[in-house]
Amino acid sequence: MRPLLNTLYVTTEGAWLRKDGENVVIDVEKAESGRLPLHLLSGIVCFGNVLMSPALMGHCCELGICVSFLTMNGRFLARVEGAVSGNVLLRREQYRCSDDPSRCAAVVCHILLGKIHNQRAVIRRAIRDHASSCSAAESGALVQADRGLAHIVERLHRTPDVDSLRGLEGDAARRYFDVFRNLIRVSDAGFQFEGRSRRPPRDRVNALLSFLYTLVTHDCRSALESVGLDPAVGFLHRDRPGRPGLALDLAEEFRSVLADRLALSLINRRQLRPTDFIVADSGAVTLKDDARKTVLVAYQERKREPLKHAFCGETAEIGLFPWLQAQLMARHLRGDLDAYPPFLWK
Amino acid sequence: MLILVTYDVSTVDVEGEKRLRRIAKACRNYGQRVQYSVFEVEVEPATWVALRQKLVDIIDSDHDSLRFYQLGAHGERRVEHIGAKRPVNLKGPLIF
């Protein structure tokens, strides 16, 4: 079993990353503030104005370390990609599958199965944990949403084309986010949630969700690249220049488990307060520097939690699951598996 | 697995100083310096074989000594630190 490698996050403005032997050195104002051996890392995520030497970039590409540059608020800017490697036959098979409507629909159906199953798991967990503190109307809404999603899951199997599947996904997302506010157990007015909004997020919960989704996508992307798949060519997400379609597809299965649950925990345990966010005059909401660090620490710790993989039967850290799923996807595309088994949270 | 590498290199001549630098550099590539001649390296067994051989090749066994302490897969639990120069937990969240 492959070890769960760590991710380096650099959030200090003006930091300069350079290579020294097999180390990455983080210089802040010309003084060394950190030094890490590269063989322990699977990714480097730079926030805001962070500089990196070309030698380090090249070396990261060679070692398969995924380097992403994000804005201070976590919006994706760029990634560093070296020479294309991996298996050309696998990638070609991926493109063929993506072009073949019926094969594509089969994969999308399974991805959505995973996604909606995991959304239901989040809702059901809330029903179980908060049954006593919920009003009848609230728990009724949750049960209703759970049933609605179960109904959509049944319809997935009978839907043969990708566009209709996308329609069902939208339907599921609406039902899920309609009750998402019931999962927030703190009564602060600052944590009101009125549905998803993005580019920019218009409330605190959305700001937190968007930030976490970026982190999940980064991890899914490096997982796909490490098994030799092309993260840009997806099945559910249409091709668009600069969009990592397959990484977003894979992230769908993980959003509710890795991001939504974590966001709820951070809010409900009061690890984040409404004052940890900045509300701009334009209505856009972003995280403050310290809060961003709190989220990163929580995310890294969350990834360390062990979980049993329903399909492989192995117990591994959750952080490795995107990598396991990427491998299963590769096996399906190669024809070793009849169907793509999605990640199902218990 | 976590391995503690300590060394004592004789630096009476220029050759010795060279060996000292090379040893330190090889250790630093794979681990972190916790004290002047003490490194904690977190490596896979295969990497360790290579690193170990590299270190053995560098030293002059007539004048220098190398010691390896195998701390195992959960080595960080067997380590207690007191005082200044607290090392980075390489398995924990890395945020700079």
TrEMBL record, chain A:
<comment type="subunit">
    <text>Homodimer, forms a heterotetramer with a Cas2 homodimer.</text>
</comment>
<keyword id="KW-0540">Nuclease</keyword>
<dbReference type="InterPro" id="IPR042211">
    <property type="entry name" value="CRISPR-assoc_Cas1_N"/>
</dbReference>
<protein>
    <recommendedName>
        <fullName>CRISPR-associated endonuclease Cas1</fullName>
        <ecNumber>3.1.-.-</ecNumber>
    </recommendedName>
</protein>
<keyword id="KW-0238">DNA-binding</keyword>
<keyword id="KW-0051">Antiviral defense</keyword>
<comment type="function">
    <text>CRISPR (clustered regularly interspaced short palindromic repeat), is an adaptive immune system that provides protection against mobile genetic elements (viruses, transposable elements and conjugative plasmids). CRISPR clusters contain spacers, sequences complementary to antecedent mobile elements, and target invading nucleic acids. CRISPR clusters are transcribed and processed into CRISPR RNA (crRNA). Acts as a dsDNA endonuclease. Involved in the integration of spacer DNA into the CRISPR cassette.</text>
</comment>
<dbReference type="InterPro" id="IPR002729">
    <property type="entry name" value="CRISPR-assoc_Cas1"/>
</dbReference>
<feature type="binding site">
    <location>
        <position position="252"/>
    </location>
    <ligand>
        <name>Mn(2+)</name>
    </ligand>
</feature>
<keyword id="KW-0460">Magnesium</keyword>
<keyword id="KW-0255">Endonuclease</keyword>
<feature type="binding site">
    <location>
        <position position="169"/>
    </location>
    <ligand>
        <name>Mn(2+)</name>
    </ligand>
</feature>
<dbReference type="GO" id="GO:0004519">
    <property type="term" value="F:endonuclease activity"/>
</dbReference>
<dbReference type="Pfam" id="PF01867">
    <property type="entry name" value="Cas_Cas1"/>
</dbReference>
<keyword id="KW-0378">Hydrolase</keyword>
<comment type="similarity">
    <text>Belongs to the CRISPR-associated endonuclease Cas1 family.</text>
</comment>
<keyword id="KW-0464">Manganese</keyword>
<dbReference type="InterPro" id="IPR019856">
    <property type="entry name" value="CRISPR-assoc_Cas1_DVULG"/>
</dbReference>
<dbReference type="InterPro" id="IPR042206">
    <property type="entry name" value="CRISPR-assoc_Cas1_C"/>
</dbReference>
<keyword id="KW-0479">Metal-binding</keyword>
<dbReference type="InterPro" id="IPR050646">
    <property type="entry name" value="Cas1"/>
</dbReference>
<feature type="binding site">
    <location>
        <position position="237"/>
    </location>
    <ligand>
        <name>Mn(2+)</name>
    </ligand>
</feature>
From TrEMBL, chain B:
<keyword id="KW-0051">Antiviral defense</keyword>
<feature type="binding site">
    <location>
        <position position="8"/>
    </location>
    <ligand>
        <name>Mg(2+)</name>
    </ligand>
</feature>
<dbReference type="Pfam" id="PF09827">
    <property type="entry name" value="CRISPR_Cas2"/>
</dbReference>
<dbReference type="InterPro" id="IPR021127">
    <property type="entry name" value="CRISPR_associated_Cas2"/>
</dbReference>
<dbReference type="GO" id="GO:0004519">
    <property type="term" value="F:endonuclease activity"/>
</dbReference>
<keyword id="KW-0378">Hydrolase</keyword>
<keyword id="KW-0479">Metal-binding</keyword>
<keyword id="KW-0540">Nuclease</keyword>
<keyword id="KW-0255">Endonuclease</keyword>
<comment type="subunit">
    <text>Homodimer, forms a heterotetramer with a Cas1 homodimer.</text>
</comment>
<dbReference type="InterPro" id="IPR019199">
    <property type="entry name" value="Virulence_VapD/CRISPR_Cas2"/>
</dbReference>
<protein>
    <recommendedName>
        <fullName>CRISPR-associated endoribonuclease Cas2</fullName>
        <ecNumber>3.1.-.-</ecNumber>
    </recommendedName>
</protein>
<comment type="similarity">
    <text>Belongs to the CRISPR-associated endoribonuclease Cas2 protein family.</text>
</comment>
<keyword id="KW-0460">Magnesium</keyword>
<comment type="function">
    <text>CRISPR (clustered regularly interspaced short palindromic repeat), is an adaptive immune system that provides protection against mobile genetic elements (viruses, transposable elements and conjugative plasmids). CRISPR clusters contain sequences complementary to antecedent mobile elements and target invading nucleic acids. CRISPR clusters are transcribed and processed into CRISPR RNA (crRNA). Functions as a ssRNA-specific endoribonuclease. Involved in the integration of spacer DNA into the CRISPR cassette.</text>
</comment>
